[in-house]
């Protein structure tokens, strides 16, 4: 059942576009804004109202979702929203950004009587499309309770983690573990392939062991198929690794393996893979080892003379 609130959605990228579409599908009235306007216009066909600026979304909507790229983009858009959002409204940031930056932005909204929640998500493009995302929410509980119905239109699992920035801390924890599992997968499969094993056989062995991981099940097939169009781009995973290190420094937690993976993924970004899926990070190791993680070509039958 659609509530009476008017919704806003800013940032219609890989995640934001299907998330906003699911809000429209659930019957909500949604004003959308995207820096590249064409993507917003596509959503107008699904009933969205297209705004010319973030300020216009702030004037029209009282529950406003953001799904932008990084901390800088959220700071820029927040400045515009602060010009127009009405007291009593609520801003929900689904972008993965620095918890410190998020707390500072949230404080500025709260001073104007506007609630602010960090609500990063996981589930990638497929979860955003199917409406099965997981949300990790930080901020005041009353604000969290006000947005439950909207999060349920976009996701399945919704966690309240505590005060401002705690949703982001949970999200960074999850991506830290995911990035390190990926690096373990890359090293294991490059070694196995160099030894002459077929990756599909190694995957079967892995799936019968305690080292199995859903992330490997999801990321190995595109590696084998050499298909790196982005579900979650390498530049954003690299950004998240930087945020984990920032958090580790602030909290006095050494993160040695994370630091190494940050550098390795940074090298892959420097090689031009930033806009590809983060699975493309395996290509750095493949280049160093002189092997590609793909199925071995069967030996050609020997020709009898
Ligand atoms: N993809 C995933 O699997 C996934 C999963 C969980 C969390 N996340 C996080 O969710 C966020 C969005 O991810 P995504 O994959 O949807 O990224 P994306 O496809 O790159 O989309 C980024 C969006 O932000 C907009 N944007 C970027 N900089 C801006 C600025 N300075 N001012 C205004 N708009 C700006 C882009 O507008 P344009 O269209 O004009 O470029 C686009 O709409 C990121 O923080 C990411 O780390 C992603």
Topology summary:
Blueprint lengths: L6 E4 L5 H10 L4 E4 L3 H8 L4 E2 L3 H7 L2 E4 L4 H12 L7 E4 L5 H13 L3 E4 L2 E2 L1 H7 L2 E6 L2 H14 E8 L3 H29 L4 H9 L6 H11 L9 H18 L4 H18 L8 H8 L16
Parallel strand pairs: 1-2, 1-4, 2-3, 4-5, 5-6, 8-9
Antiparallel strand pairs: 7-8
Helix pairs in contact: 1-6, 3-4, 4-5, 8-10, 8-11, 8-13, 11-12
Key words describing this protein structure:
N-(1-d-carboxylethyl)-l-norvaline Dehydrogenase, domain 2, 2 domains, Rossmann fold, 3-stranded mixed beta sheet, 305 residues, alpha/beta, binds NADP nicotinamide-adenine-dinucleotide phosphate, 54% helix, single chain, disordered C terminus, 6-stranded parallel beta sheet
Please characterize this protein's 3D structure.
With 305 residues, this protein is an alpha/beta fold. The protein folds into 2 domains: 7-163, NAD(P)-binding Rossmann-like Domain (Rossmann fold), CATH 3.40.50.720; 170-289, N-(1-d-carboxylethyl)-l-norvaline Dehydrogenase, domain 2. The protein has helices at residues 16-25, 37-44, 54-60, 71-82, 99-111, 124-130, 141-154, 166-194, 199-207, 214-224, 234-251, 256-273, 282-289; strands at 7-10, 30-33, 49-50, 63-66, 90-93, 115-118, 121-122, 133-138, 155-162. The strands form 2 sheets. The chain has a 6-stranded parallel sheet with strand order 3-2-1-4-5-6, with helices on both faces. Strands 7-8-9 form a 3-stranded mixed sheet. The N and C termini lie far apart (76 Å). 44% of the residues are buried. The model is unreliable at 300-305 (pLDDT under 50). The structure holds NADP nicotinamide-adenine-dinucleotide phosphate (NAP). The site of NADP nicotinamide-adenine-dinucleotide phosphate (NAP) has 26 residues, from α4, β7, α6 and α11. NADP nicotinamide-adenine-dinucleotide phosphate binds next to α4, β7, α6 and α11.
């Amino acid at each position: 059942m659609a509530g009476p609130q008017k919704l806003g959605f800013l940032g219609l990228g890989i995640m934001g576009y299907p998330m906003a579409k699911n809000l429209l599908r659930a019957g909500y009235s949604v004003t959308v804004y995207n820096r590249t306007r064409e993507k917003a216009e596509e959503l107008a066909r699904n009933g969205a109202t297209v705004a010319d600026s973030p300020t216009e979304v702030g004037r029209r909507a009282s529950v406003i979702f953001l799904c932008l790229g990084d901390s800088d983009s959220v700071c820029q858009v927040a400045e515009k929203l602060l010009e127009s959002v009405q007291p009593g409204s609520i801003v929900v940031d689904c972008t993965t950004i620095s918890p410190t930056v998020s707390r500072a932005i949230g404080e500025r909204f709260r001073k104007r009587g506007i609630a602010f929640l960090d609500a990063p998500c996981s589930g990638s493009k497929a979860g955003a499309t199917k409406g099965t995302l997981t949300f990790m929410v930080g901020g005041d509980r009353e604000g969290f309770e006000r947005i439950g119905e909207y999060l349920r239109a976009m996701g399945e699992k919704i966690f309240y983690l505590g005060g401002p920035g705690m949703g982001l801390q949970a999200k960074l924890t999850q991506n830290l573990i995911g990035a390190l599992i990926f690096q373990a997968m890359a090293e294991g499969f490059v070694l196995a392939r160099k030894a002459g094993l077929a990756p599909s056989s190694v995957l079967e062995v892995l799936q019968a062991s305690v080292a199995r991981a859903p992330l490997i099940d999801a990321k190995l097939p595109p590696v084998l198929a050499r298909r790196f169009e982005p579900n979650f781009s390498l530049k954003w995973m690299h950004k998240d690794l930087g945020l984990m290190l920032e958090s580790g420094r602030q909290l006095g937690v050494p993160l040695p393996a994370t630091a190494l993976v940050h550098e390795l993924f940074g090298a892959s970004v420097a090689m031009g893979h930033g806009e590809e899926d983060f699975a493309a990070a395996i290509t750095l190791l493949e280049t160093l080892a002189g092997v590609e993680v793909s199925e071995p070509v069967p030996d050609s039958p020997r020709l009898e003379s």
